[in-house]
């Protein structure tokens, strides 16, 4: 008798069992024998195959939780545990991941089928933009029961298909341990929010995460803030919005195409609104400094700096602030352009 | 309870579940997902020994009690019976009949 359902379950279990291959194979062999015998009995008792499968697998419960129960003290507690989301069919039959969006994510929904929640080999996103998108993936349900921090983070990386690197040395320095148990049960939150909740739970350490060069980096806030990068933003259109009064000659946001006025040479943009560029620059800079992580700017004693020249904003800041800047600029651009009307 | 069942003779996992259910009129119905981790822990602790055998036409891992397992069973059975006797003596005056004392030793 071939039982793909058992294979799927045992495969999943094996993934969660952090044991050496021999032990893993032995558990697999033993449980398979049990499953087959139990199934035969259920079938002999006159149940349908689906019902019988549900019952015998239900006896074992969630694969990840079961794996956790096989934990032994001799393995230094490095265990992948129950990063589980509620199964679609009988409560805890299967680990089922259902994502609401994204083309590159797994969707294995049980429905009426037997549990086949095998985590498929997924592509891992390595562009910063892709990772930001992946972090916005909505996770229908996340339940961690006393799951070690390390396993939580690994689970998260797996779930949304990104690389996550944790600077354990930094974390441990601040008193956060890999084994620290995490309890969390939330629904319909983005992966980024869930990760934030996990990290916020660490009492003794200020831990943060950031997207850096294709990797989600988890480290102490201090360590992350030391990683400063310089980025350049084209803010010519935003400067126009920030300017107190619109420049007469410029009607629409992209000013490059607007002809200069008063016989300016053919490099018009800077010239065109030179008259108001200075105050608009200052207004933009003080707006950013005041609203985005105020403590991080040099004027307020932080390490970040920014200058505007010819409608180009140059910012040296930590990555998270860069992200805030991008978001704010996008928000500004999304505003109805009042001055143009 | 798992130990006491294995104490009656070599057992394999599925059989232990059935046997526990039968012996307790279904009142103790531990799940497979609970049993196997217990078995593996007992094996690690040296309380049971396991051997594979497929002579019955089915691949089975048989568990037998070791000397250490026997001692552990005796100790926890004694503990449990003492506890049950104590509860029983407390309940008797007020509530009339106390529930029957379990026959088997406990291993949790």
Distance between the termini of chain B: 7 Å
Q: What's the total count of β strands of chain A?
A: 8
How many helices of chain A does DSSP assign? Answer: 13
Mean pLDDT of chain A: 72
- The largest beta-sheet of chain B arranges its strands as 1-3-2
How can the largest sheet of chain A be summarized?
3 strands, mixed
Runs of chain A with pLDDT <50, length 5+? Answer: 73-121, 268-274
Secondary structure class of chain B reads alpha+beta
Strand content of chain B: 5-15%
- Largest inter-chain contact set: A-B, 22 and 17 residues
Structural class of chain A: alpha+beta
What level of helicity do the residues of chain B show? 40-55%
What is the total tally of β strands of chain B? 3
Shape descriptor of chain B reads globular
Radius of gyration of chain A, in Å, reads: 27 Å
The share of residues in helices of chain A is 40-55%
H/E topology pattern of chain A? HHHHHEHEHEHEEHEHHHEEH
Distance between the termini of chain A: 74 Å
The string of secondary-structure elements of chain B, in order, is: HEHHEEH
Strand line-up of the largest beta sheet of chain A: 2-5-4
Word description of this protein:
The complex is a heterodimer of chains A (341) and B (108). With 341 residues, chain A is an alpha+beta fold. Helix content of chain A is 42%, strand content 16%. Chain A is built from 13 helices and eight strands. In chain A, the strands form three sheets. Chain A has a three-stranded mixed beta sheet with strand order 2-5-4. Chain A has a three-stranded antiparallel beta sheet with strand order 6-8-7. In chain A, a hairpin with a 2-residue loop joins β7 (305-309) and β8 (312-318). In chain A, α10 (236-242) packs across α12 (274-291). Chain A starts with a helix and ends in a 7-residue tail after the last helix. Chain B has 108 residues and is an alpha+beta fold. Chain B has helices at 2-7, 13-23, 32-44, 67-95; strands spanning 11-12, 48-53, 60-65. In chain B, strands 1-3-2 form a three-stranded antiparallel beta sheet. In chain B, a hairpin with a 6-residue loop joins β2 and β3. The relative contact order of chain B is 0.19. Chain A binds chain B through residues 26-27, 29-34, 36-38, 56, 59-61, 65-66, 69-72, 74, and chain B through 12-14, 31-34, 36-37, 40-41, 44, 52, 58-61.
